[in-house]
Amino acid sequence: MSEVLLQQIEKLATEAKTKSTQLRKGETVVEVEQGQLKNFIKRLVTETLARHLSTITGLDLDQNVGIIYHFWRERNTIHVKTFVPKEKPTALSIVDIVPGAILYEMEIHDMLGVEFIGNPWMDRKLLLPDTWPKDLPPPLLKTVKPAEIRKRLGLEVERK
Amino acid sequence: MQSLLEKVATWARKRSPWIFHINASSCNGCDIELVASLTPRYDIERFGAVLVPSPRHADVLIVTGTVNAQTKDRLRRVYEQLPEPKLVIALGACAAAGGVFKGCYNVGQGVQDVIPVDMFIPGCPPRPEAIMYGVLKLLGEVK
To answer: Residues B79-106: what's their mean pLDDT?
Structure first.
């Protein structure tokens, strides 16, 4: 990672009251609190020009749901990590800063149940069927039992 | 007893089966092998088999891929559009039993839970020779 970019990210991280760690050459991780996240990403996109959002990853950790934004610029990747509580998973949407995030946020909403405030398509389904029952839990949470969901969807058929 | 007309129709169907291929969320491996069996190297068309673009023109329905919550109803709808008599071939491990995706929250246990299947062709993916052998063997059973 170029020194200039590294310094810029370090500066942004300090201003967001956190630190950046370098995983290996060209890969930096920044853990940002939910309150600072939008400002951090806005400055990352406008000031360091790391505006290519490769994807957003969702993680089911026991107490929290982790959301990782993978930004990319000229062979350098910046992973911006944030956590939301699993009981009431709500996060701020970054659609107004990075419009391409809309589908990634919908996917995490489908699979892990995180509500992104500000995303206009939170009432729709992306990967799950439109007929998905509302009382079923998001399928990729670790507490979910796949066999029960299959039974509800009518996919478990008894063979003769 | 079959009438003469039915005998002629069966004879024609056996010598020129029209195939409709539906991808019920396949990984594309079986689809590529099915297309390979149509290419000049294997050339399933020398047996009269043609891929048709509409299920309403088809005699044989070839299903690839694992059946999941999204494709289950669509597969049944396509099957109902086929004119009688219809033959169904489940191509590949996924179509036969769910394949590597079996156990997933939205994946069923194969095509036969949704529509009746006449022939399973195993493999992940099956070779073009296996596909041709399966299609021809199924047509040999038609009376």
So the answer is: 88
